[in-house]
Amino acid sequence: MLGGMTEFATIRVAAIQATPVILDAEASVEKAAGLIAEAAGEGARLAVLPETFVPLYPSGAWARAAAAFDGFDELWERLWANSVEVPGPLTDRLVAACAEHDVHVAIGVNEREAERPGSLYNSLLLLGPGGVLWKHRKLMPTHHERLFHGIGAGDDLAAAETPLGRVGGLICWENRMPLARYAAYRSGPQIWVAPTADDSDGWLASMRHVAIESGAFVVSVPQYIPRSAFPDDFPAELPDQDVYGRGGAAIIEPTQGEVIAGPLYGEEGIVTADCDLSAGLHAKRWFDSVGHYSREDVLLAQVPFTDPSAEAAPYEGSNSNSASPTSTSSPRSNPAR
Predict the structure, then answer these.
(1) pLDDT in tens, 85-104
(2) Which domain covers residue 69, as residue numbers?
(3) Residue 157 in domain
(4) Distant-in-sequence, close-in-space partners of 165: CB < 8 Å, separation ≥ 6
(5) Which residues are catalytic?
(6) pTM
């Protein structure tokens, strides 16, 4: 931003597809710092690493067994011990790497609260040379992830203002949540970061859609997780397969949803692209999902408003979830409708 006017610079971004040092937070952070330096050496000003890179993603390939009450105490304890406090010593190390190389970094971590040992959160951090700029906790852990992560409060969806432009985004299947996307779009992200564990073709199709819908460049960073990365003393049984996440890192532009870098499969690596942020402005001339194409006056008015203090109506047998009294009601709609 300059004098209240948004700038449309060309920013080189890097999608870093990497494997963590599993269950070793300090080593994972050191690996991330080295990759940040490598991306900066390629001219990147924003580097994005995968979901829960520090120190492990609880993959459905093995983590679903944690639904049993017994047998996962050791893994849980080691995961908590190697999770990240925000701010804390590990984020300080990453911020120092940002300062050393004059870059910004988005990275997924398992987050803990040292003052209250217990629940962990799947968190996305945006770091810059000056510190932690933004922290978002995943709103809705997917399926087996709920055995490991609590739910986010949803008060952290707005994009962050940075010298590079507005950077926002969501984690993995949050990107499938229309209301979450819309809430995030309202802050005008120009670069959308999407760390994930989804390596499917459908995920890449979703990212192309998000680029068009948001009018932002999308940096999608799945994980590459080979069996060989797991330590010999990993305290859970692994299924007999060579790879648990094949990757697919990609960068997508906002006008036509074209993939301009990647996708990268089957290995660790960095894909980069130069993103001319004026392309997002051009895209919004045609379609601005929270501007001239939003029609909140019509569409949000269709969501019934429920007074939380009112007595609940008798159950009449409907299975519809369409009348959820969430914050989707528009300030411009009539609550009496």
Answers:
(1) 999 999 999 999 999 999 99
(2) 10-233+240-286
(3) yes
(4) 6, 7, 8, 9, 11, 190, 191, 277
(5) 51, 138, 172
(6) 0.88
